[in-house]
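Suppose a colleague, Dr. K., hands you the sequence of a protein chain of 325 amino acids and asks what its three-dimensional shape might be. Before reaching for any lab equipment, you can write down a predicted structure in C-alpha cell form. Begin with the sequence itself:
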Amino acid sequence: MNKFFAAAAACAAMLSFAATSAHADTYPSKPIRLVVPLAPGGSADVLGRLVAQKLSEKYGQSVIVENRPGVGGNIGAENVARAEPDGYSLLFGTIGIHSTYKIYPNLKYDPAKDLKPVVLLAELPNVLVVPKDSELANTKAVIAESKAHPNTLFFGSAGFGSSTHMAGELFKYQSHADISHIPYKGSGPALTDLVGGRLQLMFENLPTALPLIKSGQLRALAVTSATRAPSLPDVPTIAQDGLPGYAFTAWFTIAAPAHTPDAIVDKLNHDIREIMLSKDMAPKLADLGVTPVPGNRDVKATATFIAGETSTFSQMIQTAHLTAR
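The predicted structure, expressed as C-alpha cells, is then:
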C-alpha cells in the first residue's frame, strides 16, 4: 500500500512539473501588470516603465505599469504579494521593500516570505542635493551646520525605508549629524519641496536628481557611492567630501508573488537580464545613471544578494532604533 501511495505521489509530482513547464512555454499569453509601488516621476517609475516597454516588445504582450504608492512602497508590494501567483502580476521592487522593511513593525504581510525576487535589475548611487541658493557648500558644511543649529536641517525621502531615507539615516548614523527626516509618498513630491526651498537637502536617486542638477534647480554636493558617478565626474563622493568610510548604493528588482512557478520565474530572470544587458539598453541606462547588474545574477544569486543586504540593514535599523511613525 505504501508503495502504491509513493508511486501515486511521484506520478502527481511529474504531472505537476509537466503542467508548469507547459505553462511556462506559453507564458505570457495575456497582458502583464507591473506594479511600481511609488509615485510617478521617481527613479523607480522611470526605470520601471523602460523595462515594461522592452518586456512588452520582447513578449508581444502589453506590460501595464500601475503606480501604487504608500508606506514606503509596501502598499503596492502587498498588493502583488496577495495576487494570483501566475506570473501576470509583477512588482518593481526596491531596497525599501526587500531589505529595510523591518522599519515597519506592523506590516500585514512578510516581504521575505510573501514575495519571490525574480531578478536584480540595476544599482545606482544616490546624490546629496540642496536647493540652488543653499548656503551649504559641501558635506562638511552639512555636518557642521546640523550640529551648530540642531533641528534646522530637514531631508526628504520617498518614504520610510526607501533608499532615499536609508542613505540619509546611514549618513546621520555615521556622522552624528542632527538632521531630521520627512517622508513623502515618492521622490517626486519631495523634490518639488526641495526645489521650492521647503526642504534643506535630500539623498536622492541620481537618475531622478540629474535633470534638476543639470537645469540648475538643484546643486549636487556629493554622491553616496564608493566611487564618483560618470554622469557627475566633478562631484566628489561623500567619503571624499567629509565623511570617510561612507558608501551607499540603491538597487531595484523585479519580484513576483511567493508561489509563482519556478519555470516562469526562471524565464523572466533570463529574459529581463537579456534586456538589461542589451546594446539597445546601454545608452538609455547610462542616461539614467543606472548600472545593470552582472549577467550571472540568476534567481539564486539574486536571493543571496538580497539576504545579505537585509541582514546589514536590519542590524542598522535595530541599532539606531528606527521605526516608521
